[in-house]
Amino acid sequence: MNAPIKLQERFHKVQLEPKDYRDGVASFWCPGCGHSGVLTSFLRSLSEIGVEPENLVSISGIGCSSRLPYFVKSYKMHTLHGRAGPVATGAQLARPDLAVVVTGGDGDGFSIGGGHMPHMARKNVNMTYILMDNHVYGLTKGQTSPTSHRIMKGSVTPFGAVEEPLDPIMYMLTYGATFVGQAFAGNVKLASQLIKEGMEHKGFSFINLLSHCPTYNEIDTAKVFKSACETLDVGHDVTDVSIAMQVVQKAKQEGRIPTGLLYKVERPTLDERMAELVTRVGGHKDYDLRKVIDLSRP
Amino acid sequence: MDLNKNDLIIRVGGEGGEGVISVGDFITQACARVGLDVYTFKTFPAEIKGGYAMYQVRASTEPVYNHGDTFDVLCAFNGEAYEMNKARLKPGHALVYDCPGDFEPDIPEGVHAYPIPMTQTAKELNNVRAKNMVAMGALSVLFNIPEASLREVIETKFTRRGDAVVQGNLKAFERGQELARALKKTDSWAIGTPKADAKRDVIVMSGNNAIGLGALIAGLEFFSAYPITPATEVAIYVAKHLPKRGGTLIQAEDEIASISQVLGAAYAGKKSMTSTSGPGLSLMSEMLGMSFMSETPCVVVDVQRGGPSTGLPTKHEQSDLFLAIHGGHGDCGRIVLSVENVHDCIGLTVTAFNLAEKYQCPVILLSDGSLAFSTQSVPYPNPDDYKIVNRERWDGKGEFKRYALTASGISPMVDPGTPGGMHIATGLEHNESGMPSYAGENHEIMQAKRFNKLKTVANDMPLAEVDGQGAADIGVIAWGSTIGVVREALQRLRAEGCKVKGFYPKLLHPLPVQQFEDFGAGCKRILLPEVNYLGQLAHFVRAETSLRPESYTICGGLPFTPEMIVKRVKEMLA
After folding, report:
1. Same-domain status, B57 and B83
2. Domain count, chain B
3. ipTM
4. Which candidate in A37, A91, B104, B337 could, as Cys together with B268 as Cys, close a disulfide (CB 3.0–4.6 Å)?
5. Tens of pLDDT, residues A168-198
């Protein structure tokens, strides 16, 4: 029996241009949308990784950002609001040899899908989650999201939001993601580099891309994001979760957004642990079921 | 007297943790070993430790289809067990009880009582945990439970804990036998001698375990679990054995994640399932819509319990049929099967996978709370005897269109990783290529495609069983484990000269309408007993066929008994 192909063996197989990963469908995003920067970055990182399109599975939930898979040449699923993560987990466990990438928005991932986020992180599912964080619900035309600033006026909060926003980066550091990075979506160089490294990382990689919504978010404009983003110090220790948390908290107090690779460690992935279990019991596809059935003889 | 001669029902009751369940299990195993047909029924305390536990074993030389009307023999480990069952003790019944114990029974007139010092003997043997073995020894002598077989079971079950434990339990068992021999047997109950041609190549399983086994036989590769009573044991069984076949079971964070993971794995080409109970199925409704819309196969087992809401988590009910058939928004198709007994739990689970793979849609398999934990002896299932269906996959020729319009409505699938097959599986309405299309005409065409393919489902199943021949004054339609109760009721009614027939569909959606019509044509009146308040199957039968069944519904947390059906049919005939 041939040894199963490992995901890493799928990389650097082809030399394709970023445009070769672009599916023919026209983008439906508004002119000037930050999500276009995410798409550009994603296509560039795919080109650099050199994965064959058929070995990529792109999965999303619901929202403006969740349309992204339509624009990428790959196997793909456009699923339900909030459920991209667990659907992708199932696909990844079924085919650990394929590159699985989730793209989705802040509402999709951290509001309706919030219950799933900790579990992908703690289980270290070997896939990449790209959050396209624009601090607003765009597809439903402008409501506050879990990452919206408190002062934001949404259509359902005409007097301003009353809740504090959550921080996706702190969330992921807390729940055990093994790769956490952040960038401004307009910074294609950094964003594509993070996506590439995230996809190459063995384990659950989470990349928060701050993506401005020109239509429904007047507060977090491209200009605001760009000026607040500050690249991490060259000597930042990516292996210490408490340092990563301190950096994020300190920056927040000072009104800055730290960008770059915040945290990266190695630990066994969920599919590796599952494979270990199969090895431990000597499992294989042709195991004689009669041995199992015999256990139920009286 | 009962039709089933040599048919004995023993109920053992006591405090949870006293070994009540073990006694029941041991008697069941011993009877199955010698070729008797067994069917058990149990209730667990809601508490983790303590509380009243009950295990009822029915063993017969004839096929048994249900747990019976009531017990013939009661074995009470304590006062609570006696109090719980006292009202059911009728003249002629036998009572075996702990004496001296924590109670002194006021034995009803005509009941044959056998006091056995269970607790005291176990204490004398310095083995308080063997109280149940003392009781079992006494039961074996009093009611002719195969002794050699019981000894074998004791040896097998305790051997892992060492010879001292085996010997200790055997000694307690023997003391129980001696104590019973010293008593004079006054009742007439005894387990019969198995027929010479009795089937001994059997396995003994619970409904939940049998569903797990059926899934393994079907070629299950991925299972996502979330614990819920009374379905958890399906996952427990699969978790133990699926890795042997190289498959994966994971526990998800909730039922929504479970069904989502199942769809992801199914899209990636694996045979996938989850099991749950009513509350979990409610949560899964939206993703079942995605399964239908994106034509991604999945198998969902619903071991029904009392509802609505949290309801009666440990009790029996058949009340998720509405949810299974129509749960979810939009016009959403699926296939719904229901199991009668443990034998079905194996075979129909295989069928569920076959149908999911063929029709690329959700298949819901309905079991129920009493079947979940009921152990039954069934013929040894040879895995090679089952027909296994795999999804139709793209042959790699020409342009791939995932939702190609075909004559059958079934479009070939393709596994990720296959060059040339890239496509999107989406919950949005889409065209043949999978691209979103909200055009009214397209939606009408695609809905027709997805529903039309389900029209042939009935052809892939055996015809629903008709029990009895000729014209009938009363026809009884039943589903789920109620079928086994109706089978026996009809036998009794026929023995009394009543013209009755039964109809036992296992495919409940799409409803095999013509089969219902054919059955109804031969019956003057139709009775439809089911364990729910609203009469859920009766509702669908009235809506989709010309039959006008008379509903007989109960929802007291317990299944019907044959006697209840006999009584109702006689009332209709009167």
Report:
1. yes
2. 4
3. 0.98
4. A91
5. 999 999 999 999 999 999 999 999 999 999 9
